[in-house]
Model the fold of this input.
Amino acid sequence: MIIPKKNNLPSNAEDEAPESDLKQALNLISSVIQTRGNIPDILPGTQEEQILLRSILMTLKSSQYHLLEISDGKLDSNIELRGTFGGALKHLQSNLRHLTWKTQAIAKGDFSQKIDFLHDFSVAFNSMVQELEDAKKTLLLKNNEIQEVNRSLFISTEQYKSLILTSPISICVINNETVLLANPAFLKLLHISDEKQVVSNSFIQYIHPDKIDHFLEQMSLYGEHEVNWNHFEEEMICENGEVINTEFVVTDIIFENKPSILFFIYDITTRKKHELQILNSLQEKEILLKEVYHRVKNNLQIIWSLLSIQSRQVKDETVKVYFIECQNRIKSLALLHENLYRTDNLRDINYGQYLTQITTNLVQNYCYNSKNILLEIEAFDTTIPLSHAVPCSLIVNEMVTNSLKYAFNETGKGTIRILFQYDHANKIYFLDYRDSGPGFPDEIIPHQTKSLGIQLIYGLTKQLKGTVFQENDNGVHYIIKFPFNPDQDEI
Done:
């Protein structure tokens, strides 16, 4: 480029020429930096300025190239730049190369790597490495714990398997109705020759078709109630088609890392047959016992009829009364056996119902108008065994008979109140009897009288191991207490 002489330029151009060359040079530098453009052959300025500018541009272009190489991760390229700028690039390249090597070592698990360059960055980097090392130690510790748990689970599972496979009890492990494990005892129970026929197949196939709904219902109840154990009976089908009765005991286990259900299965076919035999035998005995009660009632009725016929031939009124009293005692026992015959409970009697029957019958036998004799009976559905009912019934019969003979004979009207109940806490029966008559005469001491009826009341109470309390309280008043005695003999 030819630079015009100063004296050939206008006066105002002498000041603008250097500024124009400098501006062009700066624009050119900016263009090379921003666009990575080529260096033009013609540069502004003097020859010396052009040489300097070209050197600057080539340095910038080379630096730019090496910076791009470094930014792309190419840290092995040879930097030929000299001087401070070239040294800085080489130093940066060397630091980044070392940083890369250390990062790669850390990635392979070597957390001993540290850096002492790049100043603040080295602090953050070394802190990060320390955190990674701590995290590695934590992960190793957790991993060891997990391995120990897995080892324990494996040992536990193997122990489960060993116990299950050697147990004489039929055992099966299922998950979602699929069999995971069945021991030899289970295979023997269902006459299965090969375990492969069972494992990985549905357990439902061994349940009797008519009982599948029941089985699923039991399993559903087991899941809903969240209980640890469940018992139920089920019918199963053997491989040969035989139907057997079984009892299931169900519990939860973790088997092969799966939540599973463990079945203990017992063959109760023989027991069920024996239960059926016992039930049939019991039904037969109940029928026989009812027949006995029925015949006893009939025999007592025959005796009552014979006494009734015989009493018609008796002229002595005193003797005839004895006959009637004897008939009433027999009638009370006949009613007792009739109630036993007609009920499903062959041991205990609903005593409230019986008391109503016996008192009503006595009122009718003594020819009273039932409207004139008020019977108030409270028994609260109390039941009493036959061994206690027989003596107790004779006691009540004597009390009512005495009231009808002596308390109401003048007016023909009166009230009889009977309260009968059982104290469950103390296991004691309580009989409270009273009438609205005049009571015993003052000169009579009841327990010392020779009256057969009074002697029966005290004697039968003693047989029941009970006590008698008697007083005149606007009429005769008895309180009798006797304990429940399972060994009480029938009279």
Residues 120-166 form the longest helix (47 residues). The domain at 274-483 is CATH 3.30.565.10 (Heat Shock Protein 90). The longest strand covers residues 243-255.
